[in-house]
Write a structure and sequence with these properties.
The protein is of the alpha/beta class. The protein is built from 14 helices and twelve strands. The chain has three domains: about 80 residues; about 40 residues, no CATH class; about 250 residues, Rossmann fold. Strand 9 and strand 10 form a beta hairpin.
Length: about 375
C-alpha cells in the first residue's frame, strides 16, 4: 500500500489540534487531536512511499513505533486515504492509457470522495468501460445524456432512434448544427466518438470480429423526444424489460416540466404499470386523457423543450445513471423528480408498487424490497 491523503478533499485546521478534510457536510471529516509531529507526518502521505519507508520517516520526526500503522488504519477507516497503486487489473489498465486517464481525472477525483476504500475511485471508473447502456431517444435530452455518459468512460452506449436530425434537436451538449439532416444513428455515433476519452472496446457480439458474447444490458434509459412517453410511460413498452429483469430509467420534458425517474428495478420497485394504476385511482378521468394524448391526433410538429431545462434534465439523468452504474441506488429509484418552468422547484414523488400490477413488486415488506434491491444491484455491478 502507498497511502495518500485524498487530494480532492480540501484540508483546513478547525483549531490548533483538529484538522477538517472536506468542505461540504456530505463528505467532511474531522480528525483530532493532531500534534505537530502527526501533522508533519500527514504531509508525507502523498502516495510515493510504502509503509516500510513511512515507518522509517516517522521515527525520524519523533513518532513512536506502531503509531504509523494505527494512524493509517484510522485514516483509511474514515475514508480519507487513497492508494495510487490499488484498484485491481482494470484500474492498472486504465492507468496505462494516460491520455484517457487525463481526460477522466476530475471524474476520478470525484469518485475518490464518494468511495471510501483506497483505490475505490479508480476501480469504479475502470469498471465503467465494461458497462453497456441503451438509450431510447436522441433528441435534446437523450443525445446529451449519451454524450455525457460517453465522456464519463462508459464503454458501450447503444442509442436507438430513427429519422434524421432536425434543427430543433441541436443542443450545446448533444447534437451539433452540422448534424442537421444526417441520420440520427450516424450523428449520434459520431457524437459518442467525439465525447469518449478514448476508443471504446470492440464489440464482442455475434457480429464482432472476436466471436465472444455481447455484454448484457446494465440499464435502459428512456428519453423519448415526445416527453409524454417519459411522463406517462406505456407499461406495454416496458414489458420485455420487466420480464428479463432489466433496470430502466425514464427521463424527459413534457410542455414546461422536466422529469427524471422512476428508476425501475423489475420485481423490486414500482414500474410504469404501478405508476399508471396509482394515478388512475386518484384521477378517474386519467385513462381517457391518456388514450387521447397517446393517439397523437393533436400532437404538435415540434414538442416544447426549453433548452436550459433540457440540459438540466439531461445532466441530472446522466448523474443518476452513473450513480447506479457505479453501484449505488440514486434518489430516482422507485421515485420521480420533477421541475417546472418558470420557478424550477425540484420536487420528488415516491412511486408505490401497486397490488394489481403484474410486475410483482407489491406485497413485499420494506426489508424484502431492500434486500432485493441490494442483491439485484450487486449482481449488475459485478
Amino acid at each position: 500500500m502507498h497511502p495518500m491523503m485524498k487530494p480532492a478533499l480540501k484540508r483546513a485546521w478547525r483549531e490548533r489540534q483538529t484538522v477538517q478534510f472536506g468542505v461540504t457536510p456530505a463528505h467532511a471529516v474531522t480528525v483530532g487531536p493532531v500534534d505537530t509531529a502527526t501533522g508533519a507526518f500527514l504531509e508525507l502521505l502523498d502516495g510515493t512511499r510504502g509503509l516500510p519507508l513511512l515507518r522509517q520517516e516517522a521515527r525520524a520526526i519523533g513518532l513512536p513505533d506502531g503509531q504509523v500503522d494505527a494512524l493509517v488504519k484510522r485514516l483509511a477507516a474514515a475514508g480519507l486515504l487513497d492508494d495510487p497503486t490499488a484498484g485491481g487489473p482494470a484500474a492498472d489498465a486504465l492507468r496505462k492509457r494516460a491520455s484517457a486517464l487525463d481526460r477522466l481525472r476530475p471524474d476520478l477525483a470525484s469518485l475518490s470522495v464518494v468511495d471510501p476504500e483506497p483505490g475505490g475511485g479508480i476501480r469504479r471508473l475502470a469498471a465503467r468501460r465494461a458497462v453497456r447502456v441503451q438509450i431510447r431517444g436522441a433528441g435534446r435530452v437523450g443525445a446529451t445524456v449519451a454524450a455525457v455518459l460517453s465522456a464519463s468512460g462508459v464503454g458501450r452506449i447503444d442509442v436507438l432512434d430513427g429519422g434524421r436530425v432536425e434543427p430543433w434537436d441541436v443542443a450545446p451538449g448533444g447534437l451539433s448544427g452540422e448534424a442537421v439532416g444526417e441520420r440520427r444513428e450516424t450523428a449520434v455515433r459520431q457524437l459518442l466518438r467525439r465525447a469518449a476519452p478514448d476508443r471504446p472496446p470492440r464489440s464482442t457480439g455475434a457480429a464482432g470480429s472476436r466471436g465472444g458474447e455481447e455484454p448484457g444490458l446494465s440499464l435502459v434509459v428512456v428519453t423519448p423526444r415526445d416527453g409524454l412517453a417519459a411522463y406517462a410511460p406505456d407499461p406495454a413498452a416496458a414489458q420485455d424489460w420487466i420480464t428479463t429483469g432489466t433496470p430502466h430509467l425514464y427521463a424527459g420534458i413534457v410542455e414546461g416540466t422536466g422529469v427524471v425517474g422512476p428508476l425501475v428495478l423489475p420485481g423490486g420497485t414500482a414500474c410504469a404499470g404501478c405508476l399508471e394504476l396509482g394515478r388512475a385511482e386518484r384521477d378517474p378521468g386519467r385513462s381517457r386523457l391518456l388514450a387521447q394524448w397517446r393517439s397523437g391526433r393533436h400532437r404538435a410538429a415540434v414538442q416544447a423543450c426549453d433548452i436550459a431545462l433540457a440540459t438540466t434534465v439531461a445532466g441530472m439523468t446522466a448523474a443518476h445513471v452513473l450513480s447506479f452504474l457505479d453501484g449505488e441506488l440514486p434518489a430516482s429509484t422507485g421515485a420521480r423528480w420533477e421541475a417546472s418552468l418558470p420557478l424550477l422547484d425540484w420536487r420528488s414523488e415516491t412511486i408505490t408498487p401497486h397490488l394489481d400490477c403484474a410486475c410483482s413488486a407489491a406485497g413485499k415488506s420494506e426489508r424484502e424490497h431492500t434486500s432485493e434491491f441490494g442483491s439485484q444491484h450487486a449482481t449488475m455491478a459485478r
